Amino acid sequence: MKRIRLGVLFSYIILFIFAIITVFPFIYMILGGLMSFQETTSIPPTLIPHHFEWSNYATVFARAPFGRYFFNTVLTASVTTIVSLFNSLLGAFAMVNLRFKGKGLIQLVLLSLLMVPGEAIIFTNYNTIAHMGLLNTYVGLVLPFLTSIFYMYYLQSYFGSISDTIYKAAMIDGASDWDYIWKILVPMSKGGLFTVGLLSFISGWNSFLWPLLVTNEDTMRLLNNGLSAFASDAGSETQLQLAAATLTVLPILVLYLIFRKQIIKGVVRNDLKG
To answer: Which domain of life is it from (predicted)?
Structure first.
């Protein structure tokens, strides 16, 4: 019994140590954004600011259009999330419930495309967007990400856990496929849909390489691109760099803390039990 307790205690200690290692950079980033330049560069390093320099954030917004960066990022991430979630929902439903010729071949092709890394086709996508005249536009920013094979396959495995008899019973009762999707499938799959939506939004929020390629105007930059440019412009003013980084990361952390229960539910699929 004592060995079991010691083992559990040791496991908690290890988890605590790794939690500190993981969380500390984020805590220091937030605190560093409220320090003076001397505190961020002092040796030994200052962990807690003597005076909270809230003016650092005002300086960040004065030197760079972070308000515009926020608007661009929220807009593009929201559009890609809504459209890709809708497309993934319909695609997963078709693959699970519908019967049509060539279904196996289509699944094989989609699965093979899933194996292709995004970096391998990014320049092809860039040439397409450039020839369409969509550089420095919101359409060019979101167009390649309006569908996702990965999200479709995730939802396909999720929908596959729902008994096929439910779909057949709905058809017998006179429901259309559209009625089944919105009145039965979506309510039963809230956890999975929420997980896909949140993952898509975070991916859009953290996007860096694609916006860097298709935009060269300051008014079209997303947060990560704006942060990179600001870090170069701010030079050695580390307190401003940390404040700007906090502005970029904090909304996603808050979003996770608010919806962490729904994320866990979507992963473990508790809402499909019974």
So the answer is: Bacteria
Cα-Cα-Cα-Cα dihedral sign, residues 201, 205, 206, 210: positive
My answer on whether omega of the bond before 44 falls inside 30° of 0, hence cis, is yes
Instruction: Tell me, rounded to whole angstroms, the distance of Cα 228 from its chain centroid.
Output: 19
Residue 218 lies inside a defined structural domain of this protein:
yes
Co-location of 5 and 56 in the same domain: yes
Amino acid at 93: F
Say if residue 31 is in the same domain as residue 147.
Answer: no
- The DSSP H or E segment spanning 101 is none
Residue 69's SS3 state is helix
Average pLDDT in the 179-204 region? 88
- CB atoms under 10 Å from CB of 203, counted, come to 17
Position 220 scores a pLDDT of 92
57's CB contacts (< 8 A; 6+ apart) are 33, 243, 247
Mean pLDDT of 194-217: 90
